[in-house]
C-alpha cells in the first residue's frame, strides 16, 4: 500500500495547525530547557564513559 505524498503532507500540516492554538509559551520554554538539559547530560555521560573506557583498556 502506497501513500500519496500530498495526502500525507496535508494530514501532517492539518494536524500541526490544529495543535498550534493549544501550545502555550510556557510549554515551549519548558521544552527548550528540557532539551538543553538532556543534551548536556548526554554529552557529559558520553565523556564519562569514554574516560572510563580508556582507563579500563590500560
Task: Please provide a brief summary of the model.
The chain has 58 residues and is mainly alpha-helical. It is built from 2 helices and no strands.
Helical amount: over 70%
What is the quaternary state of this protein? single chain
The rough form would be described as elongated
Number of strands: 0
Give the N-terminus to C-terminus distance in angstroms: 54 Å
Strand content: under 5%
- As a whole number of angstroms, the C-alpha radius of gyration is 21 Å
Q: How many helices? A: 2
H and E string? HH
Uncertain parts? none
The biggest beta sheet reads: none
Mean pLDDT: 89
Class computed from helices, strands and strand pairing: mainly alpha
Could you describe the 3D structure shown?
The longest helix is centred in the last third of the chain and has 33 residues, at 25-57. The protein is an all-alpha fold and 58 residues long. The termini are far apart. It has two helices and no strands.
